Amino acid sequence: MAEQKLEEIKKIRLEKIKKLIELGINPYPSKPKGSPIDIASARDKFTSEVEVCGRIMSIRNHGNTSFYDLVDETGKIQLWLQKENLKEEFKILDLLDMGDILYAKGVVTKTKAGEISINVSEFQLLAKSIRPLPSAWFGIKDEELRYRQRYLDILLNDDLRDIFRKKSVFWNSIREFMLQKGFLEVETPVLESKAGGADANPFITHHNALDIDLYLRISMGELWQKRLMVAGFNKTFEIGRQFRNEGISREHLQDYTQMEFYWAYANYEDSMQLVEDLYKYAAKKTFGKSKFKINKFELDLSKKWDRIDYAKTINDKIGLDISKSDDDQIREKLNNLKVEFDPKDKGGRLLDHLWKYVRKDIKGPVFLTGHPVAVSPLAKRMEGNRNYVERYQVILAGSEMGNGYSELNDPVDQRERFEQQQKLRDEGDMEAQMLDEDFVTALEYGMPPVTGFGVSERLFSFLANLSIRETVMFPLLRPEIK
Fold first, then answer.
1. Do residues 77 and 42 lie in contact, with contact meaning Cβ atoms separated by under 8 Å?
2. Rg for the chain (alpha carbons), in Å?
3. DSSP of 319-361
């Protein structure tokens, strides 16, 4: 019945388009008349003549007078359309519907009811809507339909539009902060012959002109930005899209925005202080506050951030000393904790499963330090304890919200670790890193001490206390089956 009704509405509206054309009216002109301003600005110009454009979201007809609610991204204003002002044009109103996009010109005034309105002297249809809009009151309740017709979801949901405005502020505040600190914004390749810089399963594509398979990048140019350190740049950062062929969850997407920076002649201690200042700056700029409720946690970013140790935290939480445990003992503990893992997993992958179980009850904000080498193939070893590395992760509300370290610049050590990762990959671990000979060659020319860090849009979704899919304008969906 609903589909039948839709087809009837579409048929009626298509007939209206024909009538408009017969009257010499183009239902889809290339631009509006005059020089329209946004509706929020128009509302402030009381008693002045204004021109506005927007979508008709409500129609109320009263004989020789009609009232339309016109909406753009800045707000809403009432159009007051009177036959005595519009003369013959008034008849055209019968051919207009909710959802149509309209230009209107007139004086800003108030009706007897006290509503700020435009007393319309002239109007122009800019785009005729053929499909009816869902009710602005009830919106779209089906989640998949909301994501599939996201444009309607955004149109009808002021709060959702505000989220995307905030997200723009979030990334711009990060860019602003990095530029203020003297970092150079760079662009590195999205297509790579070796997918490097992270433990992740890449997407594969084919380059027709070169006839080679390539990978979509899984990091924000980590190995490229380190090459720039070899090239003599001291501070670089990149904000862009990266791609990981992994699962979907409240916290994970396959393509998402990330920022990474690299800083020569500094180590992870310097980086931690910079990151703490960055997060405080971006949170305040974006949300105007430092205190957040995220899931079950209430946390304050403004305080001095504490540090926790990787091995000690695991031991304190689940009673396992990872420095004295082999793979079989870790597997036994994971089974006891009912944590799912691949039986082929070993070494760092098993430790990562263990840590992800432990971190879910850590409120933060804290820096996690003291990572084993096995989970950090690109980080510099600690002086005096070569089984651990100079690495940190930001933990907020039980999840990782950023990852940084003192970068490994010893080409011999880097080759050994790459070879260990490549062996794991050859054995079936598709998230293990690839041996990148070209990057090792770059290190052999000499890379200065460098610290690097990366943070994804997961941080924004957490601060907004929403699933990451809800903070993406157009989440990926399977094609609709008709």
1. yes
2. 29
3. ---GGG--HHHHHHHHHHTT----TT--HHHHHHHHHHHHHTT
Are 432 and 417 contacting, i.e. CB atoms less than 8 angstroms apart?
no
CB atoms within 10 A of CB 91: 11
DSSP state of 471: G
Q: In order of start, what are the domains of the chain with their CATH numbers?
A: 2-133 (2.40.50.140), 155-305+364-471 (3.30.930.10)
In the three-class reduction of DSSP (H, G, I as helix; E, B as strand; rest coil), residue 165 is classed as: helix
How far does the chain reach from its first CA to its final CA, in angstroms? 17
pLDDT in tens, 328-368: 999 999 999 999 998 888 888 899 999 999 999 999 999 99
How many Å apart are CA 76 and CA 450, to the nearest integer?
52
In the numeric block, which tokens belong to residue 374? 């096995």
Q: Closest by alpha carbon to 267, among 379, 417, 118, 143?
A: 379
From the list 297, 311, 301, 303, the residue with the least C-alpha distance to 351 is: 311
Q: Say what the pTM is.
A: 0.90
Q: Please indicate whether residue 82 or residue 146 has the higher confidence score (pLDDT).
A: 82
Strands, E assignment, 179-233: 184-185, 191-192, 204-207, 212-216
Is there a contact between 458 and 251 (Cβ–Cβ < 8 Å)? yes
